[in-house]
Design a protein that fits this description.
This protein is mainly alpha-helical and about 650 residues long. It contains 32 helices and two strands. Among the domains are: about 80 residues; about 120 residues, no CATH class; about 100 residues, Serine Threonine Protein Phosphatase 5, Tetratricopeptide repeat (Alpha Horseshoe), CATH 1.25.40. The protein has a two-stranded antiparallel ribbon with strand order 1-2.
């Protein structure tokens, strides 16, 4: 089937339209902060900071949403290389992938509607119907989490890969470049499995699509394109390797807490109907939905009957070779990896899992409306425009919720007040907002809901440390460690509490245990170095700061402390003026040479290296920056400047 010039022009116009609508919808989301799992996968990830090392960039921290999903991990590393931790670039990427996926929907559906099984009924309106479906899918509010919650790009990347695979299968069957399109289909399938595990169903979807719309039967489809389907099946080997290489903690497991695989599967009956409702009425959308476990079959009987009827209708249509059977298969197959017997401890229900499955019911609605000129007296085009507008308003409102983590988690608790993780996350958001006192009641509520919820105990201790009540924090932190002895964050917070309490030896032990559990944790190395520095353990402090910089060469705190140590240590054997100058200059460049403390360190390093004139000038710049602040240590810095002017270097303790 030859692609004509008008088709190419229409595809270009569709891409521009979809991109314009997407930008208009999500323009108020660019500057939204990182939320929820973004902190593990992005903000605190050492992997993305080592983007020049591709062996590291393809991996992600254990327990994060990018672990075992190399395409997600490398995309985050590229974002970091281009814009650091500015959220705007990450969300522009998310939207770009979503727009491209919607564009593939347009091209693929347009081509499919022109195939023999559908051409007589829809062929003449294929372009308009495909554009309507792509547009409605693009603007649907259920996708907002996949754009705003950055690490959920795994959904949009997997969706793009699966959709591209199916379009390539269509091209392989209808164009003269069958081999090229077959290879591209396998590459797209590989990209999908490198993004999320739901892509395990891609070969089945491709074969069903081929049998329904192209070949006429599964046997004929297999015979005609055996190599293509063998290639898609080989992606399962890659998927197995990706899953084996990743570690998302308790997010995927057989059995968690008291939820057995059978209880999970029973619960998913209600969840799948909930997902179907969200397609038609996307309210409420809940970032972290603590869906209750169905303890009996009677609790999900109505939903079970509905799903059974839909499954029976799908099978019946398939037996009669009705193309609509593919839509039913699409819904059930794409939800099978997350709504079957494998408990996903991260969440029993999650709105973002409907991103790609939603295409089937939306296609059914668009085709039904498109087949009529008027619906209850309303022109079909007006009705579709109204749907797009209503969805757009809902998307903009949802974006505003993501603009403030406190507001986001407050809204979540409004829907799920018994969700201990939401209570804990609201508390954590309040701590980040410098409101640790307000956070404590939420940590306490999370502990009441789930007594053995270690993160709540851990974060409660961290909030108490921020409030200057470090001794009170120790029982909470030790309880967190007793519940989960493999949680590095609990040891890190314990180290902070012990350090603030004056027990430096115990603090170092806590930090070192955090490092054992999470060797790439920059702040654990850094804080251990600070304690060693306070104790006068120069070699240990240098080793700790060097280890922190090995993980993040641009960690300003470690650069500054290392330079200070190398410039001012009382022990001559611990000093290295030239190395101190290099570290301090790097820190100064990273801060735009506007941080007085770092300029003070640079001045000390220059003095140690023998350049007293430069040390005098640099410290003068630091004093000028501090001049408006009456609380600044003007006299101390002035005394150091006098030393430099007399040709002497500064030493700690002088």
């Amino acid at each position: 089937m030859r692609v004509t010039a008008p088709d190419r022009r229409a595809a270009a116009v569709a891409l521009l339209l979809l991109a314009g609508v997407g930008v208009a919808l999500y323009a108020n989301a660019w500057r939204n902060p990182f939320v929820f799992d973004d902190h593990d996968a992005i903000v605190d990830s050492p992997n993305i900071r080592r983007w020049k090392d591709w062996s590291s960039a393809w991996t992600a921290p254990a327990g994060s949403g990018a672990s075992g999903r190399p395409l997600v991990a490398v995309s985050l590393a590229v974002n970091y290389a281009l814009g650091g931790l500015d959220p705007q670039g990450y969300r522009i990427f998310n939207l770009a992938v979503h727009v491209l996926a919607a564009w593939v929907v347009f091209v693929w559906v347009r081509g499919t509607l022109r195939l023999p099984p559908l051409a007589a009924r829809h062929g003449s309106r294929a372009g308009w119907l495909a554009l309507a479906l792509a547009l409605v899918w693009l603007v649907h509010p259920v996708h907002t989490a996949a754009i705003n919650h950055v690490v959920y790009r795994n959904e949009t990347l997997a969706a793009f890969g699966i959709l591209a695979t199916l379009e390539c299968v269509r091209r392989a069957a209808t164009s003269s470049c069958s081999r090229t399109w077959s290879v591209t289909a396998v590459a797209a399938g590989l990209a999908a499995v490198a993004s999320k595990e739901i892509a395990v169903v891609t070969p089945f979807l491709a074969l069903l699509y081929d049998a329904t719309f192209l070949a006429g039967s599964m046997r004929t489809a297999w015979a005609a394109r055996t190599r293509l389907y063998v290639g898609l099946a080989v992606t399962w080997i890659a998927l197995a390797a990706f899953v084996a290489s990743g570690d998302r903690g308790s997010s995927v497991s057989f059995g968690f807490e008291d939820v057995t695989p059978f209880a999970y599967a029973r619960t998913q009956i209600g969840v799948m109907v909930h997902y179907l409702r969200l397609v038609f009425w996307p309210r409420p959308l809940i970032l972290d939905d603590a869906w209750p476990v169905a303890r009996s079959w009677g609790a999900v009987l109505p939903q079970m009957l509905l799903l059974a009827a839909l499954a029976a209708a799908t099978i019946r249509m398939w037996s009669r070779r009705r193309p609509l059977a593919f839509l039913g298969a699409w819904w059930f197959l794409l939800l099978a990896p997350t709504s079957s017997f494998v408990p996903l401890a991260g969440a029993i229900a999650a709105d973002h899992r409907v991103v790609l499955p939603s295409l089937a019911p939306l296609a059914l609605v668009v085709l039904a409306i498109g087949g009529m000129r008027r619906v209850r007296g309303i022109p079909a085009l007006v009705l579709l425009a109204a749907v797009v507008l209503a969805c757009g308003i809902a998307v903009r409102q949802r974006n505003d919720e993501f603009a403030d983590e406190v507001r986001l988690w407050t809204a979540t608790l409004g829907h799920r007040p018994d969700n201990p993780r939401a209570q804990n996350n609201l508390g954590a958001a309040l701590v980040l907002a410098e409101r640790p006192a307000d956070a404590l009641p939420h940590f306490d509520a999370a502990i009441r809901e789930s007594l053995r919820y270690a993160p709540a105990h851990r974060n409660r201790g961290g909030a108490l440390v921020r409030l200057g009540r470090a001794p009170e924090a120790l029982p909470s932190l030790r309880e967190a460690i007793a519940i989960d002895p493999n949680d590095a964050m609990s040891y890190y917070n314990l180290g902070q509490a012990l350090q603030a309490s004056g027990d430096r030896a115990a603090a170092i032990a806590a930090y070192e245990q955090a490092i054992v559990l999470q060797p790439e944790w920059v702040m654990a190395h850094h804080n251990a170095g600070v304690v060693h520095l306070e104790q006068g353990n120069w070699s240990a402090a240098r080793a700790a700061f060097t280890a922190a910089l090995a993980q993040d060469p641009e960690h300003v705190g470690s650069l500054n402390n290392l330079a200070w140590l190398l410039a001012t240590a009382p022990d001559a054997a611990a000093r290295d003026g030239n190395a101190a100058v290099r570290a301090a200059r790097h820190a100064a460049r990273l801060t735009g040479e506007r941080d007085p403390q770092i300029l003070d360190t640079l001045a000390a390093a220059l003095a140690e290296a023998g350049d007293f004139a430069a040390a005098d000038t640099t410290l003068g710049r630091a004093l000028a920056l501090l001049l408006p602040d009456p609380r600044a240590p003007h006299q101390r810095l002035a005394a150091r400047r006098a030393l430099y002017r007399s040709g002497r270097a500064y030493r700690m303790g002088m």
